[in-house]
Each structure stands twice: as C-alpha cells, then as structure tokens.
Automatic annotation (TrEMBL):
Keyword Methyltransferase: yes
GO biological process, alphabetically ordered: methylation
Lineage: Bacteria, Bacillati, Actinomycetota, Actinomycetes, Mycobacteriales
Origin species: Mycolicibacterium aichiense
Alphabetized GO MF terms: methyltransferase activity
Cited Gene3D superfamilies: Vaccinia Virus protein VP39
Methyltransferase domain sequence ranges: 49-141
Listed Pfam families: Methyltransf_25
PANTHER family in the cross-refs: METHYLTRANSFERASE, UBIQUINONE BIOSYNTHESIS O-METHYLTRANSFERASE, MITOCHONDRIAL
Protein name, UniProt field: SAM-dependent methyltransferase
Keyword tags: Methyltransferase, S-adenosyl-L-methionine, Transferase
InterPro entries found in the cross-reference section: Methyltransf_25, SAM-dependent_MTases_sf
Amino acid sequence: MECMTIDSMDWDGAYRDGGFFDGPPPWNIGEPQPVIADLIRSGAFASDVLDAGCGHGEVSLALAAAGRTVLGVELSETAVAWARRSAAQRGLSRATFEQGDITAFSGHDGRFSSVVDCTLFHALPVDKREAYLRSVHRAAAAGADYYILVFAKGAYPAEMESKPNEVDAYELHAAVGRYFDVDFIRPAPILATVEALPGLPDLVLPFERDELGRLQFPGYLLRARKSESGIA
C-alpha cells in the first residue's frame, strides 16, 4: 500500500478494485458495525436519516431495510457506485446516495431527524472537524439524534506512520458539544478485517477477535441531540 497520512488519504483508491487493499477495505465488514446494528434494531433512528461518510452503504441499506428513509453521503465515487448497485439489487429504494464532501454538505437544511457517523469522525483531518460538525448541525432537524462511532485513543500504535485521528472521551465531547447536547459517550468496539498493520507486519495488537475472526478495536459510541442554542 502506498504510504500516506490519513489526512491525505486517497479515499477512492481505498475503495477501488486493485487499489490499496486486496479486496474490500478492512473497515468494510459487509454489514453495519454491531453497535450500530443494535441501534437500528432498537428503533433508535427516525426518518429521514443522514449517513455521514457512508462508504459502501451497509448502514444506509440496513436502515432502509428497517423502513427508514436515508441519504448516504460519501467522498468516494467508487463507494457511492457500489452502494447504489447494492440498493438496486436489494430493492431498497428508501436508500439514496450522494457523492460529495461531508465537510461542505449543503442543500438539506433542517431535513434529518437522525444522523449517524459510523467511523467517519476519526478519518477526518482534525482541522476539518469544525466544518464537518457545522454541516451536520445545519442538516439536522430540531431535536435530531446524532450517533458517532469512533476509534478511541490507543486503538492504533503511536509508531504507525499513517493512522486514524483517534480521540479520547474528553476530546470527543469538547468537539461535538459545541454544536450538540451530548447525552453519553461509552466504550464500544469497532470490528475490522485486519491481519497485520501497514509497516508493522510483526506487531500483534492486544485486542480480541470475534467469532468471525474480526479484530475488535477499542472505540466510543457518542449520542447527542441538536440544540437550538448550538453554534450554527
């Protein structure tokens, strides 16, 4: 894989056949992350839903299968094309997809009753977080629920040349709390199909694997709600 920082990542290359990975990127496990799937089953999301940084669209498709209307927004054209094909193959017309930069997302002011960010936040450059949160706040309806699943600090070794911009709970609360009322932040695993880390092939990560062999990285699940007093 070509060496680059997460902040300069070619996301289309990450999703393209013959790109950086042999097969799908490791964060695409072929279904929603378990903690997000649990939320969908519990009825936590109300239509319309914004799936921020939707990737291959597994969260959007699961939401549509559960009867929700959802818009997935993703930077990679390749990932959006994949998601649209999957929606058509599964007959899930409630799921639509838009290619674009979520940090400059517009045209849907006050539309979404729910927002889900499944492993996008840590993929953003730190200096893009403000623009991202402003875009999501603008798109969210009054009282909208907002869920973020993000890597916790320490999920990846410090010596990695390119790794996600992980957060601790304080950092996450401070960033999101400027725009939304934070209800809770709690530990939650993030599964990935990882055998070895780029540049560190002999490093054994101290995390358990699930029954399918997927590595369980430490993360946080945040739930927040749009506040009318938040920064617009």
